[in-house]
Amino acid sequence: MSEFSLIEKYFTRPAPTAVLGVGDDAALIAISPGINMAVSTDMLVAGTHFYPDADPFLLGRKTLAVNISDMAAMGAVPRWATLALSLPEENEAWLAKFSKGFFSMAESSGVELVGGDTTRGPLTLSVTIMGVVPLGQALRRDGARIGDEIWVSGKLGDAALALAHLQGKNRLEDADYQRVSSALHDPKPRVALGLALRSIAHSAIDVSDGLLADLGHILEQSRVGAEIHFDQLPVSECVQQFSAQAFGKRCVMAGGDDYELCFTAPVEMRARIQQISDELNLPLTIIGRIIRGNRGKVLAQDGTEIQLEKSGYDHFG
Amino acid sequence: MSEFSLIEKYFTRPAPTAVLGVGDDAALIAISPGINMAVSTDMLVAGTHFYPDADPFLLGRKTLAVNISDMAAMGAVPRWATLALSLPEENEAWLAKFSKGFFSMAESSGVELVGGDTTRGPLTLSVTIMGVVPLGQALRRDGARIGDEIWVSGKLGDAALALAHLQGKNRLEDADYQRVSSALHDPKPRVALGLALRSIAHSAIDVSDGLLADLGHILEQSRVGAEIHFDQLPVSECVQQFSAQAFGKRCVMAGGDDYELCFTAPVEMRARIQQISDELNLPLTIIGRIIRGNRGKVLAQDGTEIQLEKSGYDHFG
Q1: Residue B13 contacts A where some CB pair is shorter than 8 Å
Q2: Do A126 and B126 touch (CB under 8 A)?
């Protein structure tokens, strides 16, 4: 049973005053007339989500960045965060670097740390982030409509390629590793994009678990299907080298850790979205469209369907 | 360096839009004209904060209860919570019981779970709780004034006595263990008391780390001293048996896990507070008073000062 199903089965109960409960990138709470608070929580465990010897400065940045990414996916302005961490020992040098990284991301994103807890235990980090979004303007997972174009920001697969290199699964030239490693270690949450997409996109999610898995959540919650064109997926030259191989396809479609936004919008918004892309100097690419049905398929250039491995993306393949 | 100093040193930065930042039972955020949101986060690690084989239903209740207690200490109404947990294996039976306990506490306290994350890793639980309190009415740690009487709710030391029994440090008769064990396993957060004390108490804190450690935070942040009368501390008959011994004194004054409220209020509020005690059917006891200075002392019945071990309560002894 996946993480998602466990949450759904045991931790989804009616939350009457929540506009949107567990199951989107963030919950929405009505805190003030006209304003919702978006709230999301994440736990990162050493050995599962990061290497115990990861650079503490970059880890501090990423710990907050992945949470800010959830705010971006809601079209919310990230405002406040709490941080709980357990540490195997009181390692002040580590804490100093970690907190420096955490605050460098906080300050550049306008986030204030308003609560903290440190304790002894296996290295584990938990952030709760809170943001604000005007009533009715949040980007949700359940708003995709048939005919919507599916977009993705930036490029996909660099982080997965960097991780495969570190795991010894696919060695890269040094120069290539340098090009893709920042996607893995220092992701840039797409907050400005999320804000710009309010009242433009019908649905959005951030790509943390891999494009197909995350787009699958949009399909499930919007009760629609999707058609993706593999050759339209935006990838770097490094990833391009591997994209004919099953390994390369996995990096692009199921790699995860991209922290780009995947969103759907009606065709008539295309010009407006291209304008946003120019303004933000951020590539935004149409990768397919929303169709009737309840599943997604990925098409090759010749129009045939690419057969996918099952695991990781329930609504594709 | 204690948990408190680590937080202070590395995670306290100016939070300009926060009314009150890291360092109280909860932070206060201005979310709406006239209303503050109180936010607090906690991490509980198996082996450090609870036994890995703890009853999952009671653990679920307590995980939320200790966070609700922080809201009580602020005079806030607890409203929303997020839960992140890592589990060594996908143990559905455990999750089913844990979530049942968590929701039993949530429902009886009017708290909605609005965000969750489950992941693989060492058994660790992290809750962030959010509540609301009218502007200017929160109970803080920094409001104690010279001449205030110091009060504590309920009884102190039962939880510590139960824990010492489980640790084999001080065996109890079965009947005695039964009497004190619910204080350890199923604490009752004093939300109604916190609300009743708005505009009555000058300062408040919940007793999670032990009376002297927690009252010490009030002394530090209010820049005052305190005089406590040991024989006035409210204890159960079980604890009373040991209170002549150093061990018994430790349970009462430094045991922790009591989750009672310790608060200070001016003498003229005494009758009003006794009325609250009657209304809530909850003992409220005067244990001493706030004096000039920056330290606390504990007095024996004959007026001599009781010498305390240093550790755990910087502002006493």
Answers
A1: yes
A2: yes
